[in-house]
Amino acid sequence: MSGTERHNHSDEACSQGSSEGGTAGQELGAARTSRPDSTPHVGIVDNLLYLFTEPFGIVVDPFGGGASTITVCKKRMRRYWVSDRKVPEKLKHEIGYREHDLVAPDGTVTISGPSRWGDVQLVYLDPPYWRQAEGQYSSDPTDLANMPLEQFNAALSGIIKGYAGKLKAGAHIALLIQPTQWKADDRGWPVYHDLDMIAAAPKRLRMKYHIICDLSTQQSNAQQVDATKETGELLVRSRRLVVWEVV
Ligand SMILES: C[S@@+](CC[C@H](N)C(=O)[O-])C[C@H]1O[C@@H](n2cnc3c(N)ncnc32)[C@H](O)[C@@H]1O
Questions:
Q1: 1 in a domain, yes or no?
Q2: Which of 26, 88, 209, 210 could form a disulfide with 22 if both were Cys (CB 3.0 to 4.6 A apart)?
Q3: Distance between CA atoms of 223 and 121, rounded to whole angstroms?
Q4: Contacting residues for 50 by C-beta, under 8 A, at least 6 apart
Q5: Quick check: 207 and 87 in contact, CB under 8 A?
């Protein structure tokens, strides 16, 4: 493989990483075995790809945001189906980054992905952290960050269930989410979205990991620290990563 040649292995226009020099054999070896990146966030995605996918497998990310999943898929030679309800202006040039709103105006969940669901090895879900991100991405009612909690739970659990119904046994769904504390209705009672989603997960999903991710600046911002100083409450400052296997 040479230069920035792009290979399309499916008529679904699933995109796959470009390569910069080196032989295909060397690149494939590196894509399979290189140790995961340890930087926050990118590191989490990189670890997930390392653990749960193989070169040329498809990764689906419907909350694409800043497109770190595309970056990691290119590095590891995975095909990807990445979308967001609004593709950021600076990423509009990114081939294979689609626009798709998971929630229709009437509240119905519509999931997106390639029709070759059998090739999908991982669905990575990094939704807005509910009210912590309210108004941050948009002011639209279908943006998960702007929904009342009940609607947020229904939408997110519907999304998880929708993907669970599409994937073949052995594929994985990963959810990265932070409990909501300083913007919850009652700061003394953090909302543990991870636990809500674990409780709502369909039987088809068997939980493999429920882990606390390393502290990063994203996990305790200045407002959280100020809020807990004010109230004397304990600070919940971790994100949670839940990984289910489809059985
Ligand atoms: C936490 S960010 C994702 C960050 C991303 N993983 C990255 O690497 O930058 C959450 C994203 O979810 C998107 N989003 C919110 N509601 C959505 C919906 N109903 N359908 C699709 N995307 C949605 C937002 O636009 C935002 O970009």
A1: no
A2: 26
A3: 37
A4: 35, 36, 76
A5: no
* Closest CA to ligand 1's atom 1: 128
C-alpha 208/C-alpha 60 separation (Å) is 19
Cβ neighbours around 170 below 10 Å, total: 10
pLDDT for 128-181, tens place per residue? 988 877 888 899 999 999 999 999 999 999 999 999 999 999 999 999 998 888
Distance from Cα 36 to the centre of ligand 1, integer Å: 23
Does ligand 1 have an atom closer than 6 angstroms to the CB of 96?
Answer: no
Domain annotation covers residue 2: no
* CA-wise closest residue to 98 among 82, 110, 74: 82
State pLDDT tens for residues 144-154: 999 999 999 99
Domain of residue 69, CATH code: 3.40.50.150
Report how far residue 239's alpha carbon sits from residue 226's, in angstroms, rounded to the nearest whole number. Answer: 19
C-beta 37 within 6 A of ligand 1: no
Q: Which domain holds residue 119?
A: 15-246
